[in-house]
Write a structure and sequence with these properties.
The protein has three helices and 15 strands. The protein has 296 residues and is an alpha+beta fold. The chain is elongated, with a radius of gyration of 32 Å. An eight-stranded antiparallel beta barrel has the order 6-7-8-9-10-11-12-15. The chain has a five-stranded mixed β-sheet with strand order 2-1-3-4-5, with helices on both faces. Strands 13-14 form a two-stranded antiparallel ribbon. Helix 1 packs parallel to helix 3.
Length: 296
Amino acid sequence: MPGTIVVVVVLSAGELHCPPADAAIVAMRGTLIAGEQVLVREVQKPLDDDKLVALRTSTGSTAVVEIAWSHPDHASVHLHVGTGGKDFADRDLSFTSSDVESERGRTVGLVLSSMLEGAVAAARPATPARSGRLAYGLDLLIQGAHGFDADEGSFGVRTGAFLRFDEGWLRASMGFRFGTSSRAAMEVLGAQLSVGGAGFVLDRARFRVALGADVAIGRQWVEQHRPEGDLSRSRWVLEVAPFVHLSYALGARFSIVGETGPVLTLPRTRVKVGDEDRGTLSVLGWSGGVGARFLF
């Protein structure tokens, strides 16, 4: 996978599952950063440097390591480490009879990790520098929403201005939507003014994921067509909408965006004519939208 550091460990025949070799591999995997792979290859006879370089190249590895234990006592080990071109570093370790085999292997793994530290660090993708600059622009989204407790659906559009900084962004938006509530047999219109913001939880070169929330003041209108005359009512409501925001940059100043999350509308809107209850609108719903972001 892109950005993954791969280290290939070459073992002599018969060493693949012996205690010191297994302990060395475990120690290396425990000290390298998660996501950096350690691959193990067992060979029937030692490889010369040209073949070790070819193995490193064919696997796309950052380094190749040859571990040669003395037989049959594992009292000593020769480490042959290649991290670039045809240059190799060598290290010899000796152990006493009182050193248990698993501890010998663990020592070898830690020594190898120390020898590989510089090469692995150099091969890791550089962390993008924070610019510290502010940027501003406009969002335009087409949105759809569904109200759970009133079988209510709506579509609309929202546009707004945002201020982006390294850790996230703040925005002010306005939106309009039109929909129906089948349970209440009503048409529903809405207009909102909102403020909100989000913080980046994933920030790659082109792809970003942010978590945030909007708070909106809105006006709801409901209309019901009846033989005796149309019914029309309106009221102010408060909306709270946490969301997940995704964006993919197609250029330096243009991104496609998507956004989704729950919407809480308070207070509950109940429509009455005289003493007759004509239905309610949803308090809890789900909204999603796609659109574009323009950076100035």
